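During the reporting period the student researcher (J.K.) took over the structure-prediction task from the postdoctoral fellow and processed the backlog of single-chain submissions. One of the processed entries is reproduced below for the supervisory committee.
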Amino acid sequence: MMEELYTNCSILFRIMILRENQSCIKGSRLDEQRCSLPAPLKTEEEYIPYPSIHEVLQKGWPYPLIILPQFGGYWIEGTSHNLSSPALSDVPFPWSVKVKLESDPTAKLYRKHFLGKEHQNFYSSDVSLGYLILSVKYEQSEKQENLRLLLRTRTGTKHDLIPISCLNEFPNAVQMAKLLCENVNVERFFPVLYPKASQLIVAFDEHVISNNFKFGVIYQKPGQTTEEEVFSNTEESLGFLEFLDFLGDKIQLQDFRGFRGGLDVIRGQTGTESVYTNFRGKEIMFHVSTKLPFAEGDSQQLQRKRHIGNDIVAIIFQDESTPFVPDMIASNFLHAYVVVQLTHSSSGETLYKVSVTARDDVPFFGPSLPNPAIFRKSTEFREFLLVKLINAEYSCYRAEKFAKLKERTRSALLESLFEELQLRSRCMMGLPVEEDDKTENGSGGFFENFKRVIRGRSQSLDTMGISMRKQQPATMPSRPTTAGLALSQSVAEGPKAIAASFALPGRSPSRTRTSRFHGRRSSAIGIENIQEEKRDIAERIQKVVDSPETLLDLKSDGSSSPSSPEFPSRKSKHI
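J.K. obtained the following structure tokens:
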């Protein structure tokens, strides 16, 4: 009896040990699967800021060209400027090839591969992707047959060259579109039958290309650390004058016939002279702070700030070592700065130290700065600097808030192009067109709708400017009742129109500040109404509407031959 009881107890004990071991194994496995939670985000009271400009100045010379704002929001390129021996021979030459201008790689694909050559265009409408415009071209090279495809959607343009040998059978238009975008979900595409369709399509594709640029040039004297100080400079040092002469040509604004960058060339309300250059077929107007009107008693110098503050990229020129802080200038538009500091070699030759800073959501742009970032005064450095400025502006358009407006503009223009191609194709087929279609499409067709989109952006900016004034009554001086900057470029300047039609917050995009860390000042940018710019853009747009060939510069009418006789018979404008 006792033996049986002992045996049972032994069995129970073993079962308890086994279960305990199993629970330990499960616990260890769960521990292995657990992941540690991230540390809670620091509050503003716990956040350790970067040193302020005053703390940097207290530490003494030498100073960096750029220091980050206390709460970040910017990145810096080019922080090394030390030479073991300040001799001219020590300064590197970083260019082995011609520095490259960055641009949208798809903007000129249609002109390069399709325009004036046999090809077909199709259109359709997708429930999720929106309006679609497809271009197809058969190519044969080195005994290989290819299909070159170009698909336009509201988010962008997709391009590919596909060997026909890789396909089981020759695809139809829907299958071609799915080769570029798997999300295409339409039953069919319809052929474009309008002989001048290529003119409309190339105008849409190249609306993002800009040949006109305006950049700010701000003179920062030694020891100046505030916006009021740099905008109040009226005297120009010999080094600054030498740099302006190096940058471009000094021109008289009165009756100036080139790109004016929003400056008054009739009544002289924006000064008498400026700096201008033509670089690789692109016109550049520089808004020089010391050449814009100076107003006694105006601490913020709004006459100067309304131009420079509405630029997207600006040069900061320094005679001597004084750090620049990107949030020193409160602006809704300025997203990137190129800081240039004058120095000299041991033999007295002119050298320039360069640093670049931009907001966190601005992608990096080339050409890259050498190490150390010191340049000789030369034609190579001038070319490098101008390319860097232009690429900086293109890169700024990819910042989050500019990109959103760019997509809305593209979507509106694509819808207008779709309706125009559909309407013209129906007319070519002799199919009845309802009056509603003509009314909705506009009397001037695609170019007229292009014009309406640009005007609509200007009107929406006025509304946004007024809204900003109502939100900041305590810090904003009295202004005209209409607000917002008019566009300063023609319809061919897509990115310019986008940039000038959207008011951005005047602070770092990566951090929201509460009252404990309030901004230096409320922004006065993006709420000024420049009437002469509105008249100028209206005149430029009207010229394009009256003579679209001046915009397109076509070598042929680029007629599109249909690939199928099928055509929709629906009365509605939507497929």
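The committee noted the following: DSSP finds 15 helices and 14 strands in the chain.
J.K. will present the remaining backlog at the next meeting.
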